[in-house]
Queue: 2 jobs
Job 1
Amino acid sequence: MKNVFLGFGITICAIISIVIVMTLCGTNMRQNELNRAVDSALQDTVENQFDSKTYSVSSNDEFVADFMEALLVQINSECSIIVNVLDVDYQKGLLSVEIIEKYKHPIGTEGQVSVKRTVIMEQYTVTVS
């Protein structure tokens, strides 16, 4: 009987340990995914704005919409995304955003990761003499 209780206690401790590791790894994976997705979406959006082969954006709203579309294509997880636009200027290629991702942990509690990024397109002009 003593061994049954000992085995039961060890099993419960192992399950709790596995859930803790899954939660910590899940949070880390979500943060990495969000960082990569935001970086890629910002870069694609700003580069497309100044690429003559793609359509041109004519307002800040279109610029933000392009970013949000690029961001949502990058994210594969089941989550809800909140996008706070901190600053935008489509003519200068400036976009500053805060992204908050909310998701469920394996134990059912809600988790949250966030990232703030700002991108400014640098344009160089070369004069040929």
Job 2
Amino acid sequence: MPTPRRNPLALGYLAVLLATTLFARFGDAGLVDRLQAFSSSDAHNLLDHPVRALLLSGLWVAGPVWMPYFWAFALTVAPLERRIGARRTIGVLAAGHVLATLLSQAAVGLAVTSGRLAPDALDSVDIGVSYAVLASLGALAALLPGRARPVVLTGAVAMTGYQFLSESELVSRVGHPSALLIGVAVGHWLRGGSDRGLPVRRLVRRLAPSRA
């Protein structure tokens, strides 16, 4: 389980999500709608205010229930943070959230252009932290040793495959598998850098003159 000393990032992020979830549930409905529309990473907001949209959209949960995100963070973000540190974990979360959002909204734009979706899809509110969580799952799976890696990767692919088949919204059908693949790619890159660094450190220790 996450602890404040070992997982400041995961617990801090969960606290922010809890605050916004409680506000969305008990706050003034009109104000909540305006703030979520302001924070949305829909296509129009991305064109007008990309940084604001990408940053604020990740501070909400998609729906009224927070507890599933606690377990998602406990099983993905927290162990990833313990393994690679808070700063690299922020990079994984940001890569998954930003890149998957851009890919999913690009798909929406193409669907609107081709006539498969109505133009109001460009303004559909798109908030949530699911892309970041899936990216952390992919990165964690790629970093696991031995037989655990293919087992977790298979489970993650099966989960996102089920989401792809059961989801009706295009943003989720594109964004969820994209976020997982982005996380796996980042995890493989991190693991490769670590593996390449080990022989170098050993060589330096061998070549360094011993102290008298």
